[in-house]
Amino acid sequence: MEVNGPNIRKYLERFIAKPHKKIRLKKFDTGWVKHEAFKAKSEEEAKQFLKDLLAKDRGDLAAAQDILAASRKYGILIVLQGMDTSGKDGTIRHVMSGVNPQGCQVYSFKVPDAEDHAHDFLWRYEKVLPERGMIGIFNRSYYEDVLVVQVHPERMEDLPAAIGPDVNGFWEGRYKDINAFEKHLVRNGTVVLKFFLNISKEEQKRRLIDRLSHKEKYWKFSYSDVTERQYWDQYMAAYEEMLESTSTAYAPWFIVPADHKWMARTFVAEAITSAITGLNLSYPEFSEEQIRYFSEAKKQLEEE
Ligand code: AMP
Ligand code: MG
Fold it and tell me: Where do the domains of the chain lie, and which CATH numbers do they carry?
């Protein structure tokens, strides 16, 4: 399928948080539709183009995932972070809908339970990492352990004081742990793709009001969404520090403009598809002897 329009992959680079660079989220456009890539297009045209591209990517991703599963050389870990209503669930639904469900696992992480708290903070995530050949999606992740709890350190009171957030260098230590963890994963054949769905505070307000305006969306609403919103600036500060500290050459963060769902979904789909196809994987090769055996088996079946 051909989709005519700007080469979005060319622009993906711009959304990567450069390692060791200061991040000012205010400088990252959450809308982006006025960008030069779409200059010649109206918003409606840009939307249609990106929706077509997403449809194409879905097909490409399904094909790439099949080869990923057949070759069993790499696992793919996709980390999705973002404020409430930033579109994490919808992105998963729209981007992965073409993929074989057997090749993909999604984990949504909620408030840790007592067993989680009884272990190191990475434990519950390590347990469910994707094996080679699989795509694992973390809807929220170990990054919550430097985000929500940095904004609300009182939620970590289970930790002994001697190793808890009051200790100097505690957060720095967690960033280092995360970087080392991801380095370990990458070195062992897991591709780590991290997306921060970047919405504006105004857009969040619109989406929350929308949830409260449709009965069939009530279930998505949680009262804490409104209370957490009051900590918006603290969350943005925590996100900036986290992005600065954990965007690395081997596992970079994509800061995805997410005020338009059709834009965020396509950017994520493009980044995942190009990362998997970039591995240049192929279906397993078979020796002449194996191939002879296959034709023998086929003949036997046909003559049955
Ligand atoms: P949702 O994703 O809307 O279903 O909400 C999940 C909730 O779990 C959010 O309020 C998160 O802040 C919270 N949560 C997820 N991971 C953690 C964590 N590691 N520590 C504390 N709270 C978390
Ligand atoms: Mg929620």
Answer: 10-302 (3.40.50.300)
